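[SOLVED] Need 3D model of a two-part complex

Original post:
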Amino acid sequence: MSVISTKKLVKKFNGLTAVNGVDLSIEEGEIFGLLGPNGAGKTTTISMLCTILKPTSGTATVNGYDVISDQEAVRKSIGIAFQDPSLDHKLTGRENLRVHMGLYGVPKDERKKRMEEVLKLVQLTNRADEPTQNYSGGMKRRLEIARSLLHYPKVLFLDEPTLGLDPQTRRHLWEYIQNLAKKEKITILLTTHYMEEADLLCNRIAIIDEGKIVVIGTPDELKEKVGGDTIRIKCGNPKKLASSVKGKVQKDEVLIVTDKAEKLLPKIFKTADTKGIEIFSARIDRPSLEDVFLKFTGKEMRRETGSFKDIMKRRMRSR
Amino acid sequence: MINPEAIYWIWYREVLRFWRTKSRLFSSIAQPLMLLAFLGGGLSFMKVGGASYQVFMFPGILCMSLLTVSVMSGISVIWDKEFGFLKEILVSPISRLSMFIGKALGGASSAMLSSILILTLAPLLGVKLSLIMILQSLVIMFLVAIGFVSLGLIIASFLDSFEGFGMIMNFLVMPLFFLSGALFPLEQVPAWLKTISMLDPVTYGVDALRTIILGESVFPMQMNLTVLISFAIVMFTIGTWTFNRQE
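Solution:
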């Protein structure tokens, strides 16, 4: 049974189509990634799934409940960590969590235990009695993820979970997310425009561009669609090697495109050896999700930073 | 539809926030007190209806802090919008009605908190308060606060940013305060001014508090209560309606 399912989901803002007929089917326990550049429609899709926005047309169910007719049941089933922080800065970490549990009606006798559990999961136990205005960006994001887990949601939405964080914090956060998928057994839908993030965390990825899903698959499947690996060899006699291993010469390198680079490499070495060609270096290039994106959308992923100023600018624009 | 627990937690957050933002708490008390000390002190040669001017304006000063904190608390939803906390409430499984009630009660409690702090200064002015008088005042204060927090919430639902904020203070709160007869006796003002003042709900709050604390009044208490209760109910109803309407 799919936990999240959408059919021909469309959202238009004043004639501008942000989401243009998205079909998704996400199974229980998956970490599913929506990958695409800013403005591709990722956040709009998530907003419709978590009942903040009403779809212009199409249907969607989350945990079996319709996002239009059964909003309250959907809201009870989901947890969300927003792209822009949504904590109360004047309240401490624990106070933020307590308010959340009250709003979601977490059983009273479980509250304390649950709160400490999620704090431990994101390693904020020691700082939880400080107002969140003292927190760093990474800590805020972690607390927000912890908060979204308090009411035992079936589905967790993470909207750009590491946007604007430094590389080290990002790596930590990835660990938390992987850890949580194991411990909490929940389905996670995350959006990102970082290729490595999608590659590392997700079981399946949908690439979304201009409101449409371009391709869906596991990271490996997607990479396979781009084509094989490329072996690059520097050697004493490139032309001779190229003709004997069906490669081509590019500058001073021999390039061989193949599906099974690992198996082919020893054979190439043997061939070179028998022909008396000295090999200086060899390297295997794997296709990245970046290549996948390029292939399916015909454009490069824009690299955008997530500084506070950019976030504010984007927000002003999105008004 | 109405979820008492959710209402409690929204109220709790609202009051805690107000209490913790010391600058807001401080200015909500300091501003009225400055008026009381400097304007009241400066005009202390005047007597109004047997009482000193300072004592006369005291109930008005209570209403001033009530009015400012109430409207501000209502409008503070813009802050929640801007800093994201509103989304946390909007995606939670509570109804807009519960959210509105929690906000309205939270704002009203904050407003009453600062007025109560001012009320404790009454003995310094030589005003003697009995327990009954305090309880009666609290009822009036609650009615005024609920009405104006709701008004603030309604305004906030039409605003997208803080930009309109200063305008509301200058063109809504200030006139409402000045017209209310908080600073002058309404019996002795020109007819045109009195007519406008009678359209201002704060007028009846000030008059009711003056009746309770000083035993002086322009309007009968029944009239004050009728206006204040109607105003609170109308604002509250429009408020819940605006909140439900929002997508």
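Edit: The CA atoms of residues 47 and 53 of chain A lie 6 Å apart.
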